[in-house]
Design brief:
Shape: globular
Radius of gyration: 17 Å
Largest sheet: 7 strands, antiparallel
Helix content: 25-40%
Oligomer: single chain
Number of helices: 6
Distance between the termini: 24 Å
Number of strands: 10
Length: 213
């Protein structure tokens, strides 16, 4: 296990440009060894096949119909969100959510969600390796990492959260299960860890512990 964790740190150094958010208030302090073992159980590090990751439930229309998507790849569509848990560590793969777009014609307070995008399990493995190194190993906290579209690298499509069992983020995850919507990793109310506020649709600003690897 020591060797594998050191390997993750090496992979993190070789995967620049990923944005991580490290903060113990919402995410707690998950065990780095448990998280590294968990990652190896679902994300093959050599699987570079491009796949569509889709959160279809966020596209349901007012009449309850599901529009579906066009899949140009030979690989199967991966439905999100997904959550894995092992010995005090939870990893959640969710659609990326950005701040609300407020303009003269659009005053919605809802987060803007990238519900569909293309990447690979290899890219996800490397993203979690960065998250483990920068947050769990270096800062001893949980956190999140933003995964870009493999075909459009400047467009974020997924967020991976590493959080401790019984942390505040688990409350947010449970609420999400009942009412699907965009969850922003840099939402200041989430980072505050204030359990009196379910911080899911807030326009706030970036957190202090946001870094780009």
């Amino acid at each position: 296990m020591v060797v594998s964790l050191l390997l993750f740190c090496g992979l993190a150094a070789a995967a620049p440009g990923l944005q991580t958010i490290c903060n113990a208030n919402p995410y707690g302090r998950p065990n780095s060894w448990s998280c590294s073992a968990l990652l190896q159980s679902f994300a093959p590090p050599l699987d570079d096949a491009i796949r569509i990751f889709d959160e279809e439930q966020l596209a349901v229309t007012y009449d309850g119909s599901w529009p579906g998507i066009v899949n140009p790849f030979k690989t199967k569509v991966v439905q999100v969100p997904r959550m894995w848990t092992h010995a005090g560590c939870n990893l959640a793969l969710m659609s990326y959510a950005s701040p609300p777009r407020v303009s003269e014609n659009n005053t919605s307070a809802e987060n803007v969600v990238s519900r569909v995008g293309a990447t690979s399990w290899k890219n996800i493995f490397h993203a979690v390796a960065v998250l483990l190194d920068e947050c769990l190993v270096q800062q001893k906290t949980g956190g999140a990492v933003i995964v870009p579209n493999a075909l459009l690298p400047k467009r974020p499509i997924l967020t991976i959260f590493a959080y401790e069992v019984d942390s505040y983020f688990e409350t947010i995850w449970n609420d999400y299960q009942n009412r699907p919507h965009g969850v922003r990793p840099i939402d200041p109310k989430i980072l505050s860890g204030n359990e009196s506020v379910i911080a899911l649709n807030d326009s706030g600003s970036n957190a202090d512990n946001v870094s780009t690897a």
